[in-house]
Amino acid sequence: MIELQCPVAGPLQLQGEWFQNGSMNITVKNVPNSVYLVIKREAKRKRRSLNSEIIQALEAEAAEAERRRQMSKLRKELDKFAASLPPLGDSAPLIRADRER
User: Fold this and answer.
1) Could you tell me the pTM of the whole model?
2) Lowest mean per-residue pLDDT among 17-21, 41-45, 58-62, 91-95
3) Residue 5: in which H helix or E strand, if any?
């Protein structure tokens, strides 16, 4: 239950869920015709509805965005770890000594 405060009517209570069956309905406006035609063609090729194809494309993009976010986080952790390591000295003397053996 959600409670809102209305300045005129006082407290309002809303019951229900924002999502229906764990899903969200959205409306997309002004889709370029070229994009629409590609999605429609792919849906037909894969024997899916246009709606299913759009959901699949959104899921794939969401997964890719999450992967990029995780990679960015891991890169920051790796950079932090690398900065914590002691500096390396010049390896040339070690290589020369090894060659002289």
Assistant:
1) 0.58
2) 17-21
3) strand 2-6
What is the distance between the alpha carbons of residues 53 and 43, in angstroms, rounded to a whole number?
Answer: 5
Residue 11, helix vs strand vs coil: strand
Mean pLDDT over all residues of the chain?
84
Contact 2, 12 (CB under 8 A): no
Bridge partner list, 23 = 20
- The Cβ of residue 53 has, within 10 Å, a number of other Cβ atoms equal to 19
Distance separating alpha carbons of residues 23 and 20, to the nearest angstrom: 5
CA distances from 2 to 12, 13, 92 (A): 8, 6, 69
Alpha helices in 1-101 (DSSP H): 33-45, 50-84, 92-100
